[in-house]
Amino acid sequence: MKKIINTKNAPAPIGPYNQAVLTGNTLYTSGQIAINPETGELVLNDIKSETKQVLENMKAVLTEAGMTFDNVVKTSIFISDMHNFSAINEVYATYFDENTAPARETVEVANLPKFVNVEISMIAIKS
């Protein structure tokens, strides 16, 4: 059985999907981009601010599901320019303990929704 997870503390879905789906103890999140959920505006000041907003949106989804970044076992990071990797990684590292960080891939793509620079999705497991 699946449970739909949606929170007002992250951007609302703009299509036929939900912020996350919990099935058993496993949470599958949709990708988050840097939309400020309070204003609906994109946060594109710089790549670090953008990445922080993405991760704060993800934090809100995890919280709604009763989880934290400690529960995350896999992340997928999609970026529009691999030259931004180190700056994105610097912000990402503040949300995870390096010793217990999840598995991850980072993929450069031609375009992302709303032509943002970074999108992140996650899989988390509730212990």
From TrEMBL:
GO molecular function term, any single one: deaminase activity
Domain of life: Bacteria
Pfam families: Ribonuc_L-PSP (PF01042)
Entry-linked CDD domains: YjgF_YER057c_UK114_family
GO cellular component, one term: cytosol
Cross-referenced InterPro entries: RidA (IPR006056), RutC-like_sf (IPR035959), YjgF/YER057c/UK114 (IPR006175)
NCBIfam families for this protein: Rid family detoxifying hydrolase
Family indicated by similarity: Belongs to the RutC family.
The name this protein goes by in its record: Enamine/imine deaminase
Gene source species: Tenacibaculum jejuense
